[in-house]
Amino acid sequence: MVINLGCDSVISKINMHLMEKRIRSFDLPIFQKEDKMRQRIIFYGKVKRVAFRNEVYLMSIRLGASGFVYNDKKCVVLEIEAEPDKITYLIKHLKKVPHFNITFIDVSTIDLKNESIFYKTKRT
User: Fold this and answer.
1) Whose CA is closest to 76, among 54, 56, 47?
2) Structural domain contains residue 3
3) Is residue 47 part of a domain?
4) What is the pTM of this model?
5) How far apart are CA 66 and CA 5, in angstroms?
6) Considering the domain boundaries, does residue 25 fall inside one?
7) In CATH, what number is assigned to the domain containing residue 66?
8) pLDDT value, residue 72
9) Helix, coil or strand: residue 45
10) Is residue 67 part of a domain?
11) What DSSP state is assigned to residue 87?
12) What is the model's pLDDT at position 7?
């Protein structure tokens, strides 16, 4: 019999803290001030059970974006509202993370929602 003493939660919090510290250390480029856009971006490949959502969440907050991210059955779905250069930067960043293996990205532009926060969710 296996007894879960909540260690997974502690490990997750430690990992999240380490990711947050790493992401805060990045020198971000200076982005041009442009009108915001909203995109629905679906990532396929090795993007589940590798902290992909956490990376998206922390980088999106660092970039000042709003929207949400969630795991779907075979992919990760992101809706992000930000300046176009910031969205492009986020996608390029995610492609560089060694333990992610993005095989396909489906991008569509959707209507702005003028949200003010970014959050992770189970599903919408």
Assistant:
1) 47
2) no
3) yes
4) 0.86
5) 35
6) no
7) 3.30.70.100
8) 92
9) strand
10) yes
11) H
12) 45
